[in-house]
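User: Quick sanity check before I run a bigger batch. Here is a single chain. Can you write out its predicted 3D structure?
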Amino acid sequence: MTQTSVIEKFDNIISIGTTLAMNWFRGHSKVCGELNPGIYRKPYSSDLYQHFKNDVEFQFAEDFKRRAPSVISNPPSIDNYLDWLFLMQHHGVPTRLLDWSESILVATFFAVNSDNDKDGELWTLLPWKLNESHGFYGLPSNSKNGTLQFLAHEIFYNNPEELKKEYKLKEIPKIPMAFLPPLMHPRMNSQFSCFTIHPKPQTGCLITDVIQDNKYLMRYIIPKELKKVFKSNLTALGITHSSIFPDLEGLAKTLKERGNIVGWEQPEPLLFKEFE
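Assistant: Done. Predicted structure follows.
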């Protein structure tokens, strides 16, 4: 079972980030205790959606791929399934991708930025430990890794047995895989984006099932009472809406919130060891 620890001060965030420098991080504004991507969470996992004649994930993907070329000038090539997934994720379509960040400060921003009346949640993962379950030691890109390509293609194909043969896999992947994406959008670059891609959830095959050693997967709770000061600290360190969402909407949110977060009175300078 994943160990959970409570954050007591902002210095804890810095310590985690510098100690676990090779880890990935993910923040939730509310405690949920799970690491499932959007398409496998409510409402899409509810009975209402499960009664659809077609698989809801397949239906979302097919509809998006069919209609997107009418509103964008440069859609991905028809067989570039990962790029289609990135485009869907970027524009808010629920997918089997789960966002992570290489920056603990970015992940902390998402943990404290909203739901001020609820505790936040911060996860940290050593990504290549997850990939050892696939017999892969490292982090694939969107190149020729058969498991990664299978998991992306499956959404649009909806016939895993045939795909298994196409990608010459011994078995259908059941465990999520961590990978480094091309940074296709400014937002991905600003957020130090990385992903896990998830097959349909099966008992015993979730990230929290596969990684039992807390050296490689850990969960931290950020008490709601600390959210405001953490948000202020992040702003002082340059982690704001406009840095994470580099567009006019992000800039507007930063300007509106700055006066509520940053104190205007100049503090006394911090003194350490005297220079001789």
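The chain is about 40% helix and 10% strand.

User: Great, the batch can go ahead then.
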